[in-house]
Design a protein that fits this description.
This protein has about 150 residues and is an alpha+beta fold. Helices cover about 30% and strands about 20% of the residues. Helix 3 packs antiparallel against helix 4. The radius of gyration is 16 Å and the shape is globular.
């Protein structure tokens, strides 16, 4: 799903936004496609693919354990401090995002490395719960808390 967007440069890639800023992006071939539950080997590390749609249909997180510490590379799915980011872009689906957050809460996560903002080296599961609570709050609360 995301691979096709990258290869075709459709709206999910935000190519129009890049062009408006004078950035020329060329389509790229995707060499390897991953699915939920796949294991990606990066050097000596094995990372589990967790499909987390919501931000976009093809959003994924990567989960691993290093030195007895569980780690989540969360991309744009969730950030530290419960700060909500870009939540209404192309492909955004609120219910999918809420379900993906609930799914992440099933993992015992110590550290988290989001695509933007602060990294967490401990207490990541508590931050994911905070984010989930905000995402599941009535919209009036979410709107007043963005920032």
């Amino acid at each position: 799903m995301a691979a096709e967007s990258i290869e075709k440069l459709d709206e999910l890639t935000l190519v129009d936004m890049a062009l408006q800023r004078g950035i020329n992006i060329e389509p790229a071939s995707v060499e390897e496609r991953v699915r939920d539950g796949d294991i990606v080997q990066v050097g000596n590390y094995s990372l589990e693919v967790i499909h987390t749609p919501g931000h976009t249909p093809g959003s994924i997180c990567l989960f691993t354990e290093i030195d007895e510490k569980t780690i989540l590379f969360s991309g744009d799915m969730v950030s530290a401090g419960g700060k909500l980011g870009f939540i209404n872009g192309p492909g955004f689906k609120l219910e999918d995002w809420k379900n993906s957050l609930k799914r992440l809460l099933d993992f015992d996560i110590d550290a988290m490395f989001p695509g933007h903002g602060t990294f967490l080296v401990s207490g990541a599961k508590d931050q994911i719960k905070l984010y989930s609570d905000k995402m599941n709050a009535p919209w009036i609360n979410i709107i007043t808390m963005i920032g």
